[in-house]
Amino acid sequence: MNKTIIFTLMILSTMVFTSCKSKTTSNLDYNLTAYTYDDIKAKVLEGRSLDSDNLNESDLKVYSKILNYLDKHAGADSYYIYDAYYVNTTNSHVVKVVLKDYYDNFLSMNEHLTSKGTAATGNESIIMLTYDKNLSSGYEPFLMARNWFSELKSEFENDFSDFHMNSFYIQLDYMVPNPIKESYGENNTDWKHFYTEEKTYKKHLYDNSINIYFR
User: What start and end residues bound the annotated signal peptide (predicted)?
Assistant: First the structure.
């Protein structure tokens, strides 16, 4: 009789941690396309709606900066807008998006969260970008998180034949850093940018939880 063994692991690192920073190409020094209310509405995720009070003329100028950044680095037709709003306490505008490549995962996670009675905003497929005086982007860390998990899963596949693995918590999904200061360079999927020995071991950052099911 087969037995299923379930492990939940807290992982600081499973790979060699190196970090190499190069001059960034991520900046806002390019011609901005002015987004209108109708432009933004056309990108809104099906079943979602935006508060028109958050889309006045001054708001649209800021949202245009955020969306132009995403258009440049992800592609203008690569995402749906999940939400857009202004936060008074931090004087910042927020845009949340779902990449079309991860839309099925978004739906699956929503179904899981609903069954658990958990807020849909906990969906790991929702990416946040903010703008106060500077832009902060969760787009790059989201890609890094997916790449980290993919590489980790590949390592397990080399040693185990019958298992299932899913990501319970990847801290990169909850990071929204300034991409200019971080200087990602050309490779915005390189998780080693953040998972350095100093940050991971000395400062105890980036603890990740995964579930592994062995049969």
Answer: 1-18
